[in-house]
Amino acid sequence: MGKRNREKRAAKKKVRANRGPTPPRYDFDGYEEPWAPPPVVSPEMVAEGLKQAAFARASDTDFVDRTIADLAGRRPVANPRTVAIGAGIVLDAVIDLVWAKGWTPVDVREHVRRTADAAAGSLLVDVIAADTAKHSPSTVDERWAAQVRGAEVWWESGVPQLLQWADRHGADLEFALRTTIVVIDELMRLPELPVIIPAPGSGSARSAASVSGVDQKVLTRVRGLLAKAESTQFPEEAEALSAKAQELMNRHAFERAVLDADERRKQTAASTRLWLDAPYVDAKAHLVHQIAKANRCRSVFYSRFGFVALVGESMDLEITELLVTSLQVQATRAMVAEGSQVTRAGTSRTRSFRQSFLISYAARIGERLEEAGARAHDPVEDERLLPVLAERSQVVEETFEKMFSNLAQKSVTVTDGAGWEAGRVAADRADISIDRRAVGV
């Protein structure tokens, strides 16, 4: 070896000695050094990290911030594509878990709408769209398909969806990951519910044609009558329109029941959920209960989430849902028309007044609907109709008992007498008593 080469080697050895020991190549703590390559991080590792951050969201915000910084900070542990793929993996797994727990697309969207921001809601819609697209339409129940209409795969294949979502919202990867963690957290917290619609791919799909629901022509007419009742400023007109709608629905329901008897059709029961908006959710749930009971349905109020679960024959469920929507609008309008309320001392009692108003309104509506149901069919039809209704009631009760257990009775409190009286008067104005001769089909 020549003298020149020996001098070069000695110089290199001296430089290495001055540098100190070489740090581990994939030591996460040493990654701030500019010469250290990023650790080998897979999408699955990213998915697990996001899941752990979601678990820690409520108790350790520093851990969440560190996770986001590791994945989308100045020197991330993986490239954006790998990070976005990992986010897609965990979101896909969590939404499958939620479906297995009995939640439906409408349920999760309503829950996230109440507990998170619009960005989380938007990302959730895309997660639902991606999940639906995985399955053949032949394996998607028609009721499920109706709930996911509007959730579409708008992004291009080949590029991870989260990156395109961030670009669409003018956001960076850090914001997209924080939103992802919120969605994961909200979904993982959800408890089990009774399964009311099979998830896509879990079995054969049920078509709309197999559901014995309200005839679409009748449904269109009823919706028109209720819309007019909700929009009019004249109580007498609203009363007449609501009465006509209730008469039409009950007539149609009983005619279908008689047809079931003639065809010896086996009675079945289904279930649905109605989400209620604040305020006065407890009082609104009481109105749903009264309407459901009058239309041969059972109800359970989930006060923690703000929805009422209903069990009944499919047509009775549709009738209940239509009446709930309309009568809530009418009740709210009548309640607001009463204005603010104050005590003699000048302090506000508006909240107690309105709570009592809605409870009284619900109780009176229940009485009126029971009376209307008793007069909705001709006595000559009883011989064929009553056995069908009895069988239907038995099926509903059996289905209800299978779906729900450990239920507790929930009472509502009335603390304002004036509110109670005003609510009863308003319910009388929304009178849905029936005069069969006034209705033509």
Could you explain how this protein is built, in words?
The structure is a single chain. The protein has 441 residues and is mainly alpha-helical. The protein is 60% helix and 4% strand. The protein contains 16 helices and 3 strands. The protein has helices at 3-19, 43-56, 61-72, 80-100, 105-115, 118-133, 142-148, 161-168, 173-188, 216-231, 235-263, 281-294, 314-337, 350-374, 382-403, 417-429; strands spanning 270-275, 298-302, 307-312. A 3-stranded antiparallel sheet has the order 1-3-2. The protein is elongated. The N and C termini lie far apart (110 Å).
What is this structure's SSE topology?
Blueprint: H1 3-19, H2 43-56, H3 61-72, H4 80-100, H5 105-115, H6 118-133, H7 142-148, H8 161-168, H9 173-188, H10 216-231, H11 235-263, E1 270-275, H12 281-294, E2 298-302, E3 307-312, H13 314-337, H14 350-374, H15 382-403, H16 417-429
Antiparallel strand pairs: 1-3, 2-3
Radius of gyration: 30 Å
Which regions are unreliable across 5 or more consecutive residues at pLDDT < 50?
15-35, 207-212, 433-441
* Individual helix count: 16
**Biggest sheet layout:** 3 strands, antiparallel
| Estimated structural class | mainly alpha
Biased composition (Basic residues): 1-17
Region (Disordered): 1-33
Protein name: DUF2786 domain-containing protein
Domain DUF2786: 217-255
Key terms:
mainly alpha; 16 helices; disordered C terminus; 441 residues; single chain; 60% helix; three-stranded antiparallel beta sheet; elongated
Overview in brief:
The chain contains 16 helices and 3 strands.
